[in-house]
Structures are given as structure tokens and as C-alpha cells.
Structures
1.
Amino acid sequence: MDWWLIVEWLIKAVVLVLVLLTGFAYLTLFERRVLAFMQVRIGPNRAGPQGLLQPVADAVKLIFKEELIPDKVERLIFILAPIITVVPAVVIAAVVPWGPPVPFPVFGRTITLQMADISVGILYITAIASIAVYGIVLAGWASNNKYAMLGGLRSSAQMISYELALTLAFGTAALMAGSLRVIDIVEAQKGVWFALVQPATAIIFLVATLAEVNRAPFDMPEAEQELTAGYHTEYSGMKFALFFMAEYIKMIAISAIAATLFFGGYREFSFLQNTWFSVDQNWWLGPIYLFLKVVVLLFFMVWVRATLPRIRYDRLMAFGWKVMLPLALIEVMITGLFVVLGLPWYVNTLLALIPFLGAVYLVDRALTKKETFGRLSHGSK
Amino acid sequence: MTFELVLFFILAAIAVATAVGMVLSKNSVYAALYLVTNFISVAIFYLLLDAPFISLAQVTVYAGAIMVLFLFVIMLLGAEKIAPELNWRDMAIPLVLAAALMVEAGLLFVQRFSQPFTASADGAAFADPMSMSVTLFVDYLLPIQVTGVLLLVAMVGAIVLSKPEKKGQA
């Protein structure tokens, strides 16, 4: 067995976990500051310069909080649930490449800037994403609390529904690249980003991602007015912090995946290809590009949260099943056609936008006519 | 003993233990969780056999989709505490069948171990997504299509069954 390989993996894993955890801490600050900026407030700025030490203060506060375990909970699952939630959030980022392969001068070996370069990387992401539901469902059930239970059930229903559109969006990216390996998908976007070839799928992906990580306007599981705090009602102290952590780490991971699949990953803009700014000439630019893209996507998520109100639950499910899923299916078909016929990419862009605009029009019409939407949402009159 | 063999036996122990736990568990939520663990350990078996595609498909479909739905239904119905009473008379035939299966598996196991292990000639290439899709969509196109139609029919049936009856038509 190659021991250097194990050392390499160990270093990469530690770096990845550290980046994600630090990212989580500073994402909370980033979100609060950006929200404050959008709401014409100042936001946390007391601890350290510009509030930069706020995450440390928050962590210390959470660690010293009393941890309650209510009497009638299912103890084992109650304690396991936060852990089951955090683990998929962390491991899902393992297949995201941070940069091109680097020739490492000391041991004369090439190092890939990626935890695991597996031939079915896309499938790995869908597998982990589909397992991520368990923690939330089990937390809701183990709490032995009606509101927590409803929150858990809602979230599982929501995640299952939006997973379909999400997986189809993954499929579209894989189709365009002709590979399930993540690094091949990035390299296939050397010329044109997939977000330009398939703008509709990129938008479907971003919307489904918001639902997958339970972010506003899809933060149904924790709709305060209806469910107090949803699945984590009974959690306090570090266990609550773990749920919190999982949500934010998932945001980072899924932004990195979105950047990788649709926005060129670690690659530069195509017009910079033969210049000094290309990752082919300076490999260390790769992680920087990826970081910038992730920050932009995270800003987008916070922006959406600051702008849109929460969607009603039945409408959310109707939207997932009756708009997102058929639209994603049509886009897969169009992309398949485009790949088989070998059309130039802008034809695909135009073709992809037709059903998308049609869907936007139909939803808009349904929303303006109340009776129609009543029929669109299952069961109500 | 090689590293893989050790891994195999640990995994096998986990798979058998979770399967037994699933059957004996009094609480259906725990039973479902045992089954999830079982599915995941089987997925790792596939990984050991150089078949990452099937392994991850197993996790996505069984552990990720089907078992979440199971859990969902158990929790929605509040059925977790309803433990069926064990009636040994009803269990007679299943027990005999299970015993037969175990004996058969044991015989195969012994027979397999008496021969040297032979890895398939094209090893990893056999299970990579590209050659697998060629096998599925070129060599076995018709069975795949038929399966697809069957699944579609089942789906349409499920949707029709779950449709609320219109008033006045009952």
C-alpha cells in the first residue's frame, strides 16, 4: 500500500474540514452583515474589527449553554440526530475539485486538488444528498414533540420532492460533459459555462438547492409562526449548534457544487484562457476562482432570503412536483437532443429558454388567477 | 489474510447483525434504521467489488429514497410502537425456507473458498459508468425499455389510486 497516498488524503481531508468549518463560522457573520446591509441596519460590528470575532463569541456562548435533554425523548436517536445531519454536509464536498492537478516538486508526484477523484462523482453527490434527510426526520421524531415532528416530516417531504429536479439538473450537466466525473465536467466548461448553455437548468438547480438546504423562501421545516422552531425545537446548546452548522456547511458545499457544475468550477473566464490569469499557467488561481464563485453564490442565497417571503407549504409542494420536475425533464430532453445533434451551444440556450419562459408565464398566470392556483395545489378548492 | 478480506468479514458481520436487528426490533423506526445500515453495508460490498456505480445507486435509491419514504409513513401513521405478535405456527414455512437458503449459501461459500479467487479480466473497466451504459442501452436495450414502461405503468397506477374522488361521482 502506498503510504504517501494516505498521508496526502489525510492532509486534504483535514484542509477540507477546516475550510468548511471556518467557512461556516464566517458565513454566519457574512449573512448577518449582508442582511443588515439590505435592511439598512449595521449588524454585528462590536466583537473585533468589523465584527470579525463575532463567530468566536457565538461559539463560546453556545458551548457554555446548558444542554437540555427532555425526559420523554428517544435518547439514543435524539443524541445521534445532530451528528447524522452534520456528517453528510461535510462529506458531500469531497468530490469537488479545487484546482487542476499540481506537479508537486518534492516527491515527484502529481497531486490532484480534490479529495476523491471518483468516476461516478455526480452519483456520489446525489447519494449523499439523499441521505442528508435522515438527521432532520429523526430529530423531529425523537423529540417527541408535535411541532418538531411536523417540522421533520415537512422537511423530508420537501427534500424528497426537490431532489428529483436537483438530480435531473445533475444529469443535464453530466450529459453536456459526457461524463459523471466531476473534474471532466469542469474541464468541459473550458469554453462556455454550462450556465450559459443551459440557463434554465442552472436556475432549476439553484432553486432546488435552496429547497434542499431548507433556506428561505423554502425554510418550511422551521416556519416559526406555525411550528415554533421546527425539528430542532427541543435542541439546545451544542446540539442545536450542530444543526445550525449543518445548514451553513450545506450552503457552502452546495454552492461549491453549483459553481463546479454550472459556473466553470475552478476555471477562469474563457477569454482569459491564454493569459497569465489562466489556471493552466498558475494552478494556485484555481482555489481562488472557486472561492470567489462560491462567495457570489452565497451572496445570492442571502439576497434571496432578504427579498422573498416564505412560500405556503402546499404551494411549495405543488411547485416542486408540477413545475420544477416537468421543466427539468424537458430540459434534459432538449440537452440530450443537443448533444446527439451536435448543435452550437447558443442554439441550445435559445431552445432551453422556450419551455422555461413558458413555465414562468403559466405560473404567473396561475398566481394572478386565484381559482386556477387552487386547482394547481392538490386537494384545496 | 489481505486487507480486503478483513474488511469483508467486518462488513459481513455488520450486514448480518443489522438484518437480524431489523427483524427482531420492537420499534419500527429502529427497524427501518437497521435496514438503512444494512443497505449501506451492502453498498460498501459493491465498492469492494469495484462497482462504484451500483454501490452509489444502491445508496441513492434504497437508503436515500425508499427508506426515507418508509420512515415517513411510519412516523405519519404513528405506527412505530405497534409490534406484531410473533406466532411461531405462522412462521414455520418461512423458517424452513430461510434455513434452506442459509444451507445453500453455506455450501456455495465453502465451495467458493475451495477454489482460488479469480478477478474478472477487465476488472475496473467492467463496472465503469461508460461500459455499463453501453451494456444497458445497447446490448440490453429492449429489457430496459420494457422495465421503463412497466415502471411508468406502476407510477400512473399509483397516481390514479391516490387521486381524491370527485364529489357527486362517488
2.
Amino acid sequence: MTRITHLLSTAAAWCLGLLWILPLLYAFWAALHPGEYATRFELLAPLTMDNFRTAWQQAPFMRYMLNTLIITGLILLFQLILCTLAGYALARMAFRGRGLVFALVLLQLMVMPEILIVENYQTLSGLKLVDTHLGVALPYMASAFGIFLLRQTFLTVPQELEDAARLEGCSRLGILWKVYVPLAKPTYLAYGLVSVSHHWNNFLWPLVVTNTADSRPLTVGMAIFGAPESGVQWPIICAGTLIAVGPLLALFLVFQRQFVQSFMHAGLK
Amino acid sequence: MNRLNQLYAWLMLLPALLMLLAFTYLPTVTTLWHSVFYPARGSQPAQFAGLDNYRMLIDDPVFWQALSNNLWYALGTVPLSIALALAMALWVNGRIGGRTALRLAYFTPTMLPMIAVANIWLFFYTPEIGLFNRLLECVGLPGINWLGDPDWALPSLMLMTVWKEAGFFMIFYLAALQALSRDLYQAAALEGASALYTFRRLTLPLLMPTTLFVLVNAVLNAFKLVDHLFILTKGGPNNASNLLLYYIYENAFSFFDSSYAATLTVILLALLVTLALLQFRLIERRIHYR
């Protein structure tokens, strides 16, 4: 009896897994075969790279990718600095209003920049930063999630280590840099991966704030590329989509254990 | 010394707080402010509108439709993706053949941009040649105009959302399951408890904090994630699949009515703040578990 349930459960798990991976497999199928095989599935259908070539020529993917890299890099760099400083102050420094500040920070978990696109767009156009990389990055630089995560991690660092470092004449920033940051490495890795994959895939805000290929990230480029008005064919859209998700997907497949563990680490806090 | 310390703390908080002020707190306040003005015309300053924008909102059938769509959307996607996420986590955590491959398959949609997967799913939903209708044809059923039929557009969006989100929530359950104590399960096995009984009386209650956390996140996502609408339906047909944030976007950047967009944002913020208060309570409760 238990063997049958176990077998059934395994079968169900695999069916679901297959369903979950099917769209990606299909994208590969359509992109690697000539147009007439987009809906005909024959094992011996001829393979071709033409779709990738055409897609590559129809949109400035290199430029989009570079923009995405710059934007995610900018965001991550500032997030790490800002969140480390704020996380440390909230974890280890006594000052008036600490609880209130912490609550205010956590508010951003609910009132996310996505919701405030209308006002943030006006702020950015006031700063003359519309259609720039910095403009896309700015609203995300202070991250409540990052501050919270680092605060929780810093709280687990033994106070004695800080006291010892102070006796040896370390400054506050020195202590933060030499004691806290190295001990929080797993958290930094986890947060970094979560942040990069989030902003690599982000769409709405970049759509609002970019106008030209000079600052447009991959996701926005992909939406324009795949729009029915542009009259591009299925296999080519699939090829373009795969080009766009390729780098992150490859990174994910190679480091999938770290990725999953990082997401788990970030989720446990 | 103590005063110096205070100064130091504030200096360290300053960069983060400034950014939060500029892009979270101030915009929240100006949203409220702009919602009681008419849109500025040309170089003239905007005129005070009182509650006119809110009156317009109450009389706007599209707003009510977007709101009810959004509630149905949350109701349709949240419980289903959480249940699937839990099942996935249990499978991947147990003894099952090809565990790593399965985990990878479940998690992959999380790594792909919503825009990219919407491009692929658009093809599945295409009326004539789409994969779903070909499958229906195989079992002798008539095809469905998935995205063009007002009755099917929103469910079609939900289906894709569940596919996209379940693997993400699985990770949180997986993390929680791996942190559970083995002793409890050994004790349960010694008592001769059945698998179902163990799950209901042991696993499920122990996972409660995770479930609450995932629940709040899933509900928030249901209100802030509208990327796929841009590709699949654009809120149509005839607003049958319009959601609040997409409607805000339309008003601000297609109809250029930033005052009405601000008014809609106030409503969405009020909704989210209600959820936020809920979340603060949950966080407090979570601390007791530690």
C-alpha cells in the first residue's frame, strides 16, 4: 500500500516538474528549428541557428545587456554600502528613536517603489535623470530587505569580538569592515544573488523611466521586440527571449546549488 | 562620548534614510497631495480639486472592475500557488528519485523574467495554432480564445502566475523543512503515527510561521506584479483582465492624467498599508517562535 502511494506521489511530482519546465523546453525547440516546425513536433526536424542570427540582428541585444549589467551593478553596489551602514547602526548602536527608524525602514517592504511610479517619475524628471542608468537605479538603492537581513546577521556576531577589536584600537568603521563584514559573507552572497536576479528581471519601473536604447534594459527591450505590432515571428521571438535570459540562466544552472541555498538563507531570516 | 555615538549612528543611517525619504516617504505624501488637485494644464498651476478625483473614482466602472479583478486574481493565485509550493517542498525534501533535477525544474520559472515567460506563454494561448488549443483538439474539445474571451482572460493570467510563483514560495518551505528537528519525527514514528497524521499534526503546525510569511508576500505580489499584462492582454478585452497597478500605469502614462493616477495610487497604498499592519503583527508573532 505505502509503496503504491509512494509511486503515485513520485509520478505526480515528476508530472508537475515536467509541466514546470515545459515552457522553457518549448522555447528551445522553437528557437532551434525552422519556422514550420514551431507547432509540429518531429524528432528528426532539422536544426538551425538562423532564428538566433535574425533575432540578434533585429534588436541591439548587446546594448540592452550592457545596460542591464550597469543598472544591476549600480543597484547592488549602492545597496551593499547603504544597507551595511544602516544595518550596523540598527543592530549595534544605541541611539534615540532606533525602534521608530527600524519601523520606518520596514515600511518600504510594503510600500515598494513599484507602487509609486507616478510620483517617482516626476521626481526623476525634476532631477533630469529620465532615460539614464542612474535614474533606473536610484529608487532601489536603499533596500529595506537588505537592511533587515544585515541587521539580523550582525546581531548574531558576538559582542566580545567588537570589544576586542576596539581594545586593539580599531575605529568604528574599521570594526565594521574587519569584523562584521567578513562574518556576514554568506548573507552578502545570498542578498547579492537575490538582488541581481530581481533587478535583472525588473520591468515596470525601467519601462516608465527609459525612452531609448541607450538606457533600456533587456526586459524592456524584450517587450518591444516581442510586441505583436513589430510583426516578428514566433521562432525569432523565442530565440530573442533565450538570448535575453541566457546569461542569467547559464549562471543559475552552473551555480544552482548556491542560488537555491542563497534564496533559502534569505528566506529564513 | 554618548552624544558622539548618537551622531555616529545617525551619520551611518543618513544615506539609506535620505534615499528612503526621496523615493518612499515623500512620494507617498505627494501622492496624497496630488490626489486633491486637478491635473496641471500647460504652464498654469494645478487647481485645487477637493474630493472631486475621489468622486470620479467612485463613479468609474473601470476602477471597480480593476479592483474586483485584482481581488479575484489574488484569491485565485495565492492559495493555489502556496499549496503547490508546499507539495513541491515536501517532494524535494523527501526521498525521491532525481531530487536535484526536480528542484531545478520547479525553481527555474523564478529565475526567468516575467516578460520573457509571458512571450512564451502568449504562444501557448494563441487561438489557432497555440499549444493549449492543439491539446484540446487532440481530446476532441473545441478551442478556447484564451486571451480574447472576457471570461477566460483573467484565469489565463492566473494560470501563468501560479506557474511563475509556486517555485519561489517552495524555497521558503524548503528552508523551513530543513530546519525542523529530526527528533520530533522519530518520536512520531515510534508512536506509530501515519504519514498523513504526522503531516497534519506535526509538519503543518510547525510550518505555520513560514505559511504566514509566504502568504503576506504572495498577497503583496498579487498587487504589484503586472508585467505579464503588458505582453498578454494589456488589461483587455474591455478591461476584463485589468489590475489596479496596470490601471494606474495606463492613467499616468497613456491617458496622461497624473491626478487620477495619484488618486488610484492612494487607494492601492491604503490597501497595502492594511496588509502592512497585518504583517507587523505577524513579525511580532514570529519573534515568539525564536
